[in-house]
Structure to design on (124 residues):
Protein backbone atom coordinates (compact mmCIF):
# COMPACT_ATOMS: atom_id res chain seq x y z
CA UNK A 1 0.00 0.00 0.00
CA UNK A 2 1.11 3.56 -0.75
CA UNK A 3 0.26 6.65 1.24
CA UNK A 4 0.40 9.96 -0.59
CA UNK A 5 0.66 13.49 0.79
CA UNK A 6 0.45 16.57 -1.43
CA UNK A 7 1.95 19.95 -0.61
CA UNK A 8 2.86 23.20 -2.32
CA UNK A 9 -0.55 24.62 -3.06
CA UNK A 10 -1.46 28.21 -2.36
CA UNK A 11 -2.66 31.51 -3.76
CA UNK A 12 -0.89 32.95 -6.80
CA UNK A 13 -1.64 35.65 -9.35
CA UNK A 14 -2.39 34.79 -12.94
CA UNK A 15 0.83 34.24 -14.86
CA UNK A 16 2.63 33.01 -11.78
CA UNK A 17 4.06 29.61 -10.91
CA UNK A 18 3.72 26.95 -8.25
CA UNK A 19 5.35 23.58 -7.72
CA UNK A 20 3.28 20.85 -6.15
CA UNK A 21 4.89 17.89 -4.43
CA UNK A 22 3.52 14.45 -3.72
CA UNK A 23 5.47 12.56 -1.06
CA UNK A 24 4.89 8.83 -0.95
CA UNK A 25 5.46 6.23 1.70
CA UNK A 26 6.65 2.73 1.02
CA UNK A 27 9.60 1.23 -0.79
CA UNK A 28 7.54 0.23 -3.83
CA UNK A 29 6.96 3.79 -5.11
CA UNK A 30 9.04 3.07 -8.20
CA UNK A 31 6.61 0.28 -9.14
CA UNK A 32 3.72 2.71 -9.59
CA UNK A 33 2.68 4.92 -12.41
CA UNK A 34 1.64 8.26 -10.93
CA UNK A 35 -0.81 10.96 -11.82
CA UNK A 36 -2.15 14.39 -10.95
CA UNK A 37 -5.85 15.18 -11.07
CA UNK A 38 -7.79 18.28 -10.07
CA UNK A 39 -11.30 19.20 -9.05
CA UNK A 40 -12.71 22.69 -9.34
CA UNK A 41 -15.77 23.78 -7.34
CA UNK A 42 -18.92 22.34 -8.82
CA UNK A 43 -17.04 20.23 -11.35
CA UNK A 44 -15.96 16.64 -11.64
CA UNK A 45 -12.39 15.62 -10.96
CA UNK A 46 -10.32 15.73 -14.13
CA UNK A 47 -7.00 14.41 -15.36
CA UNK A 48 -4.03 16.79 -15.38
CA UNK A 49 -0.88 14.73 -16.01
CA UNK A 50 0.62 11.30 -15.48
CA UNK A 51 4.09 9.77 -15.46
CA UNK A 52 5.26 6.21 -15.86
CA UNK A 53 7.13 4.36 -13.12
CA UNK A 54 10.48 5.08 -14.80
CA UNK A 55 9.66 8.65 -15.70
CA UNK A 56 10.21 7.91 -19.35
CA UNK A 57 6.62 8.51 -20.44
CA UNK A 58 4.34 11.41 -19.57
CA UNK A 59 0.83 12.42 -20.56
CA UNK A 60 -0.81 15.82 -20.20
CA UNK A 61 -4.29 17.19 -20.51
CA UNK A 62 -4.56 19.56 -23.46
CA UNK A 63 -5.48 22.39 -21.11
CA UNK A 64 -2.10 22.27 -19.33
CA UNK A 65 0.22 21.08 -22.10
CA UNK A 66 3.19 23.42 -22.46
CA UNK A 67 2.56 25.04 -19.07
CA UNK A 68 2.78 22.15 -16.58
CA UNK A 69 5.57 19.61 -16.17
CA UNK A 70 5.27 16.36 -14.24
CA UNK A 71 8.38 14.67 -12.87
CA UNK A 72 9.41 12.16 -10.23
CA UNK A 73 12.41 11.22 -8.17
CA UNK A 74 12.19 7.54 -7.24
CA UNK A 75 15.21 7.76 -4.96
CA UNK A 76 13.49 10.47 -2.90
CA UNK A 77 10.07 8.83 -3.29
CA UNK A 78 8.45 12.04 -4.49
CA UNK A 79 6.61 13.38 -7.50
CA UNK A 80 6.29 16.98 -8.67
CA UNK A 81 4.00 19.11 -10.77
CA UNK A 82 5.63 22.33 -11.93
CA UNK A 83 2.89 24.75 -12.94
CA UNK A 84 3.81 27.85 -14.94
CA UNK A 85 1.73 30.56 -16.61
CA UNK A 86 -1.12 29.81 -14.25
CA UNK A 87 -4.62 30.89 -15.19
CA UNK A 88 -7.71 31.47 -13.02
CA UNK A 89 -9.25 28.36 -14.58
CA UNK A 90 -6.45 26.31 -13.02
CA UNK A 91 -8.02 26.98 -9.61
CA UNK A 92 -8.87 23.62 -8.05
CA UNK A 93 -7.94 21.07 -5.44
CA UNK A 94 -5.06 19.05 -6.88
CA UNK A 95 -4.72 15.36 -6.05
CA UNK A 96 -1.88 12.96 -6.66
CA UNK A 97 -2.61 9.31 -7.27
CA UNK A 98 -0.79 6.00 -7.73
CA UNK A 99 -1.65 3.28 -10.21
CA UNK A 100 -0.46 -0.33 -9.92
CA UNK A 101 -1.38 -1.33 -13.46
CA UNK A 102 1.18 -1.64 -16.24
CA UNK A 103 -0.14 0.89 -18.72
CA UNK A 104 0.08 4.62 -18.07
CA UNK A 105 -3.44 5.96 -17.70
CA UNK A 106 -5.37 9.22 -17.94
CA UNK A 107 -8.44 7.63 -16.35
CA UNK A 108 -9.34 8.28 -12.73
CA UNK A 109 -10.71 4.81 -12.04
CA UNK A 110 -7.35 3.25 -12.95
CA UNK A 111 -5.70 4.78 -9.88
CA UNK A 112 -5.66 2.84 -6.64
CA UNK A 113 -4.31 5.28 -4.06
CA UNK A 114 -5.03 8.97 -3.57
CA UNK A 115 -3.73 11.83 -1.51
CA UNK A 116 -5.91 14.25 0.42
CA UNK A 117 -5.44 17.11 -2.05
CA UNK A 118 -3.91 20.57 -1.96
CA UNK A 119 -5.71 23.79 -2.88
CA UNK A 120 -4.43 25.93 -5.73
CA UNK A 121 -6.07 29.32 -6.21
CA UNK A 122 -5.14 31.59 -9.12
CA UNK A 123 -6.37 35.17 -8.90
CA UNK A 124 -7.00 37.30 -11.97
Amino acid sequence: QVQLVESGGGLVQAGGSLRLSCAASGRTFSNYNMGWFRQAPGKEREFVASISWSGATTYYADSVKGRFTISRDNAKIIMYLQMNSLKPEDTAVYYCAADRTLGLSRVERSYDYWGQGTQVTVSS
